[in-house]
Input
Amino acid sequence: MVRAAVCTAVGSPLEITDIDLPEPGPGQVRIKLAAAGVCHSDLSLTNGTMRVPLPAVLGHEGAGTVVSVGDGVTHVVPGDAVVLNWAPSCGDCHACSLGEVWLCANALAGAGAVYARRASDGSDLHPGLNVAAFAEETVVAANTVLPVPDGVPLTDAALLGCAVLTGYGAVHHSARVREGETVAVYGVGGVGLATLQAARIAGASKIIAVDVSPEKEELARRAGATDYVVASENTAREIRGLTGKQGVDVAVECVGRAVTIRTAWESTRRGGRTIVVGIGGKDQQVTFNALELFHWGRTLSGCVYGNSNPSEDLPVLADHVRAGRLDLSALVTEHITLNDIPSAFDNMLAGKGGRALVVF
Output
């Protein structure tokens, strides 16, 4: 049996319980988890902002060691260190044919499968966002498994599976930040901290971190922020004041709230780019008038999984890690156990800390 964190229903607390995990079938891999990051998307699954079949074992940002493989799996063998890709591309849909693998229509097809059973009553369990990383071990489809690049510690590698790919991709793929440009990052959680580091790597001349919590300033500056703004109704004005009254070239919103998206837009210079990474609910309505859309000439873009291709981006990120440009451990503000995940959710709701990392 394996210990896991199960979401039984929307609005219900997580249940830490034993599950029965089968051996891998054809095209599957069994993984012993080393670590799993607690991401805001996991919280969004528990409150219904995002929907997947329930009950499910949550957790989608993880890394571990291959225990066994099913028939047909050749790219990894038992003992390999691997990172989990929660949104694998199918290679066949329209988006994949365009090379936009982050928009794959079938990326979450595995979330509807029954992959394990609750030990207490034999009831079916689904694998959350495909990989069910909030568990001591998991069984996943082979296309969700990528080798951990050399030089990246296994525990830290878990962060590559979501926060780092998302933050790095928002800067380098979606916004395409150029050396010398100015950047504002809204939200200093795990993804926000990765975005700040990515902006520094891109050579941004001014990097402004924005958060509701004054206590996060030190975290933000360690990640690369040159300036820190505590969010208020005057945030956009403050940012324009820090950029010669122009506004930033790029604003990256990592919160997913209508007011934050609107503020990020208003803090972007005329002709600048506003990138929305945060996942908001359907009730979060953002409005613009036709004249301002014309006048400001800004670009407003959604960004899914950093517009990344994990198989291509992981080696690039590993180069940054080995060179000391990317510090994965700087994203983590607490190391926890499975039993502590509900408390990590509470801290997230309260706006405390960066990434909580479950270490097995």
Summary: The longest strand covers residues 28-38. The two ends are 15 Å apart (CA to CA). The chain has a mean pLDDT of 96. Residues 190-202 form the longest helix (13 residues).
